[in-house]
């Protein structure tokens, strides 16, 4: 086997191959760099694409076709949850409203339709496994990273919609990877920034957080992503680096892929090589490393591979024990090849179907207080302070949706104003965006001050219903995807019907 550039020469070739098979590579840009091409030829487990790889659907399809031409067995993955988290539509915002809106709507047929349409689009561009849906139960409203990525706060609701979404995606032609096992919804720390602790008894863990995953496994789930979350009753290390997570999944009858969350996140420290070895020892089949916009992708890959090669060579990791992981990856690759042989819908046709499904769901999921209508001119004030780090690149979906509606009405675009602007109370109709307006937090204080000046302002709440502000005129849209924003704009700025002739 030709050596991968930058890898260790200490161990035999088998040790390097064993390490390669456990890794998911990522890279910047829209062309395959030489080091990734070599890794593909040498048998790397898979590739994860990010927004910088997928600026548009045609480029994404070309890139996926190139990757599969180099290595037909390679598994191509992406974080395409819809709503707040989109990679394929990062430039414009997602065509679907996200899990929270689907949970509020609570129509499993609609959730299945959305999952099926998303699966068809991903299949059309060449994705094999979608790192979605989130099956976290949003039992902690102040969770900084899950929020509207969850179907809701009730385990039964999350389970039935997770089931519908997983089945729908499979019908569309793509495998699902449910996350973040054993559940990230009850934490108050974002694992991108620190180590969350899920301080809950095992009975509650099983009944609440475990139910959606068990239900998805019964629905034919092919992959699970483990979280960087500590459960004290099960040990001091996060689930992604602990054998108890894989043991519990296997005991529950899951024989699919166990994939770690990104090992470059701060929850697992700065030593990527150490984390990679610990994850494989814990029973992970495939390891996400880090996003290419977070660190040098080639350097991260080399660090992880060097550490795994050394661990397999010196016996820290058992080469023979990787046979089962290799089998599971091979089964997933064979399933992906079969799906790839199925006819692919035209990309534009798939996107149209996804947009139709998303538009219907987003409109029906809106919840209102008062009579929210805007009379132009319109001023937009965005009070949302904390970014969801999982979302990556964010869009101005609400500004774009408002401006599009205003153009149709022959009105000027919405003015973007600071909440402390001197002329705010003379700005016309004021629309305010909120996400976490807790009364004691900066966002909540800013909202209270703004409403004192502009009591008629319309508040559009993009976060969880449980933290929606108590204001006279409000729209809850449950997410920040393009579908959410367009549904809000249509509601607030109705275009008059043309008179009949």
From TrEMBL:
<dbReference type="InterPro" id="IPR017853">
    <property type="entry name" value="GH"/>
</dbReference>
<dbReference type="GO" id="GO:0009254">
    <property type="term" value="P:peptidoglycan turnover"/>
</dbReference>
<dbReference type="GO" id="GO:0005975">
    <property type="term" value="P:carbohydrate metabolic process"/>
</dbReference>
<dbReference type="InterPro" id="IPR036962">
    <property type="entry name" value="Glyco_hydro_3_N_sf"/>
</dbReference>
<dbReference type="InterPro" id="IPR001764">
    <property type="entry name" value="Glyco_hydro_3_N"/>
</dbReference>
<keyword id="KW-0378">Hydrolase</keyword>
<feature type="domain" description="Glycoside hydrolase family 3 N-terminal">
    <location>
        <begin position="43"/>
        <end position="330"/>
    </location>
</feature>
<keyword id="KW-0326">Glycosidase</keyword>
<dbReference type="GO" id="GO:0004553">
    <property type="term" value="F:hydrolase activity, hydrolyzing O-glycosyl compounds"/>
</dbReference>
<dbReference type="InterPro" id="IPR050226">
    <property type="entry name" value="NagZ_Beta-hexosaminidase"/>
</dbReference>
<comment type="similarity">
    <text>Belongs to the glycosyl hydrolase 3 family.</text>
</comment>
<protein>
    <submittedName>
        <fullName>Glycoside hydrolase family 3 protein</fullName>
    </submittedName>
</protein>
<dbReference type="Pfam" id="PF00933">
    <property type="entry name" value="Glyco_hydro_3"/>
</dbReference>
């Amino acid at each position: 086997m030709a050596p991968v550039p930058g890898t260790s020469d200490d161990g035999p070739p088998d040790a390097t191959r064993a390490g390669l098979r456990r890794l998911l590579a990522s890279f910047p840009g829209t062309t395959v760099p030489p080091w990734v091409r070599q890794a593909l030829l040498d048998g790397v487990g898979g590739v994860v694409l990010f927004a910088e790889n997928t600026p548009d659907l045609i480029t994404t399809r070309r890139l996926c076709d190139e990757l599969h031409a180099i290595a037909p067995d390679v598994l191509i993955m992406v974080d395409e949850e819809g709503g707040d988290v989109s990679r394929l539509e990062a430039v414009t915002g997602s065509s679907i409203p996200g899990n929270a809106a689907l949970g509020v709507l609570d129509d499993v047929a609609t959730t299945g339709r959305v999952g099926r349409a998303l699966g068809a689009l991903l299949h059309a561009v060449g994705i094999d496994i979608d790192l979605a849906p989130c099956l976290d139960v949003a039992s902690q409203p102040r969770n900084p990273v899950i929020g509207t990525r969850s179907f809701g706060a009730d385990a039964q609701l999350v389970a039935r919609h997770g089931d519908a979404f997983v089945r729908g995606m499979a019908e569309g032609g793509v495998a699902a990877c449910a996350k973040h096992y054993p559940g990230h919804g009850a934490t108050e720390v974002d694992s991108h920034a620190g180590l969350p602790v899920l301080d809950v008894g095992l009975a509650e863990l099983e009944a609440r957080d475990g139910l959606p995953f068990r239900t998805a496994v019964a629905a034919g789930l092919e992959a699970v992503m483990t979280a960087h979350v500590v459960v004290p009753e099960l040990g001091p290390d996060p689930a992604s680096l602990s054998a108890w997570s894989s043991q519990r999944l296997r005991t529950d009858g899951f024989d699919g892929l166990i994939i770690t969350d990104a090992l470059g996140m701060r929850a697992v420290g700065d030593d990527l090589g150490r984390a990679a070895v610990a994850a494989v020892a814990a029973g992970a089949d495939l390891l996400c490393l880090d996003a290419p916009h977070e660190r040098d992708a080639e350097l991260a890959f080399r660090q992880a591979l060097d550490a795994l090669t050394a661990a397999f060579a010196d016996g820290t990791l058992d080469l023979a024990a990787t046979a089962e992981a290799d089998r599971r990856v091979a089964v997933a690759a064979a399933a992906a090849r079969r799906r790839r042989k199925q006819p692919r819908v035209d990309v534009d046709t798939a996107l149209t179907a996804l947009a139709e499904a998303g538009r219907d769901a987003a409109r029906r999921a809106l919840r209102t207080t008062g009579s929210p209508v805007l009379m132009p001119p319109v001023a937009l004030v965005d009070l949302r302070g904390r970014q969801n780090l999982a979302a990556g690149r964010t869009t101005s979906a609400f500004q774009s949706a408002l401006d599009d509606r205003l153009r149709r009405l022959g009105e000027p675009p919405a003015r973007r104003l600071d909440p402390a602007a001197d002329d705010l109370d003379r700005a016309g109709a004021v629309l305010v965006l909120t996400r976490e307006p807790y009364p004691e937090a900066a966002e909540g204080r800013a909202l209270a001050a703004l409403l004192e000046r502009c009591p008629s302002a319309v508040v559009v709440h993009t976060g969880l219903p449980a933290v929606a502000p108590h204001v006279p005129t409000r729209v809850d849209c449950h997410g920040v995807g393009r579908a959410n924003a367009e549904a809000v704009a249509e509601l607030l700025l109705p275009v008059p019907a043309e008179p009949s002739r």
